[in-house]
Amino acid sequence: MRQKLNSMFWNVLMRLAPCIKRIHDEKLNHMQALEIVRTVCGEVVWDFEKALEALKQPILIATRLGIFEIVDEILKVYENAFCFVDEDGKDVQQLAVLHRHEIVFRIILKELGKSWEDSVDNDLNTVLHLAGKSAPSSKIAGSALQMQREVQWFKAVENLVPPSMQEMQNSKGKTPIQVFEEEHKTLVKEGEKWMKGSASSCTVVAALIITIVFAAAFTIPGGTNTEGPAFIIFAISDALAFVSSIASVLMFLGILTTRYSPDDFLKSLPEKLIIGQITLFVSIASMMVAYGATFYINCTHQWKWTIFPIFLLGSLPVTLFAMLQSHLLFEMISSTYGPTIFPSKEEIRM
pLDDT tens digit string along 168-195? Predict the structure, then answer.
């Protein structure tokens, strides 16, 4: 048995070896590149011409790829490197927003401090116009969460820029909000479809629970024997399941009847889905507790030994629901109530 386990272990290890080696090589290359940048930056006294020749391409490429360590090292030795622009006229600040690299943008904000660059690219796009561009991330699951992230980016940048920049027009005569609305039409529709599909499915489940627990409330388990802790547990859990399932249905109905503007994806829709999911979980758990209490009250003496396995079976649906929905729920809670993408303008100036 031990030899078999050892053999299985080595087989798994051999299969993982190429992946481990690839990760190791990528990490090593990353560290070597960072060390080269540190060495070069540390041995030169930079003037603008020298910095433009040696640092322009590295910082622009690092910004596009989100390699924040290299961006940080370059800005430490030459703080004006954020003024370098690419062939489209975009500086590192604009590239960080366009490619949605949060850490890189935080580093640039730290270097900018009180001064904010009102720069524009070759198409007269400000940093707020670029925040309005659509850039869905493959790291975020679900079109609704992607739309929420896009709105968070736009609101965060809008909060940082001067008010005059919010009405500036690009070469096509469009303001930042017009660019945002035009670029995100498809994502809004996909987010609406995703939200309505989730809400419709959960509404059916919650409605079934309402029907079951409402009928159970008028079917007294044990006949006239309405005393004892088991009956109290049944009454409380049945009432809790009924109330929480109604609350869940109301939340999901609110999702189905929303007008679905981009701003709704920021707080309104995620909050309704979070509350609906939590109350649905509570209703399922309470229904299973009521089921266990009913079985305990009605079972005869010789079947008492079945209570524990029945309880375990009753907890299975609750566990499955938690396993299937917990990842999405935690991700939505983190995205909605977690730290904001960027600090406020006042925090930057401190």
Answer: 999 999 999 999 999 999 999 999 999 9
pLDDT bracket for residue 125 (50, 70, 90): very high
Instruction: Report which residue type is found at 33.
Output: A
CA–CA separation, 266 and 159 (whole Å): 15
Residue 290 forms part of a structural domain: yes
Q: How large is the average pLDDT for residues 240-246?
A: 94
172 contacts 182 by C-beta, under 8 angstroms: no
Give the per-residue pLDDT at 135: 83
The DSSP secondary structure of 249-278, one letter per residue, reads: HHHHHHHHT----GGGGTTHHHHHHHHHHH
The residue range of the domain holding 212 is: 192-337
The residue assigned the tokens 């850490």 is 103
**Spatial distance between the Cα atoms of 111 and 102, rounded to a whole number of angstroms:** 14
Residue 330 lies in a domain: yes
Of the candidates 67, 76, 79, the residue with the CA atom closest to the CA atom of residue 27: 67
Amino acid at 112: L
Nearest-angstrom CA–CA distance, 314 and 330: 24
Residue with tokens 């596009």: 64
Who contacts 144 (Cβ-Cβ below 8 Å, separation ≥6)? 191, 194, 195, 265, 269, 270, 273
Q: Residue 199 pLDDT > 70, yes or no?
A: yes
* Euclidean distance between CA atoms 160 and 345, whole angstroms: 5
Domain count, the chain: 1
Residue at 123 is within a domain: no
Residue-wise pLDDT for 46-100, tens only, equals 667 777 777 888 889 889 988 888 888 888 878 788 888 999 999 998 999 999 9
Is residue 230 one of the residues assigned to a domain? yes
* Measured distance CA(315)–CA(63) in Å, rounded: 49
Single-letter code of the amino acid located at 188 = V
